[in-house]
Amino acid sequence: MPDHAIVLFAHGSRDPLWRAPMEAVAARIAQQHPDRPVACAYLELCPPTLPDAVAQLVDQGAREVTVVPMFLGTGKHAREDLPVLVQQLRARHPSVRFTVQAAVGEDPRMTALMAEIACERPAA
Q1: Which of 8-22, 47-61, 64-78 has the lowest mean pLDDT?
Q2: Which of 7, 61, 64, 81 lies most in the core, judged by the most C-beta atoms within 10 Å?
Q3: 64-69 and 38-42 beta bridge pairing
Q4: Biggest distance spanned by C-alpha atoms of the chain
Q5: Residues involved in catalysis
Q6: Which CATH code fits 4-119?
Q7: Burial 88-113 (b: 16+ CB within 10 A, else e)
Q8: Domain residue spans in the chain?
Q9: Euclidean distance between CA atoms 21 and 64, whole angstroms
Q10: Which of 89, 95, 88 has its CA nearest to residue 61?
């Protein structure tokens, strides 16, 4: 297993249909970058948790983990909850390098894509 992994981190939901888009992003990463391990993780309401997803990736050989907050903005979860979780991960896995990206919704490419989608005319 390559030593750099990605964790897509989201809020979570009891509804399995809610997780489908997140899992589709993970599947696309796996397809486009088969050498890059990827996992989904959730703050609450459904497994796996961030610590569980990271532990599995570390057990498989990951030595660098990029956490991608799959939020539209940097709200409380990305601003307060995630840093605490990452601090705990760093303490639990001191030999692993953790990086945290900005919330995906704050990336100008995502903003442009959402605007493009919003402006599409509905199919007849």
Answers
A1: 64-78
A2: 7
A3: unpaired
A4: 56
A5: 11
A6: 3.40.50.1400
A7: ebeeebeebebebeebbbeeeeeeee
A8: 4-119
A9: 25
A10: 95
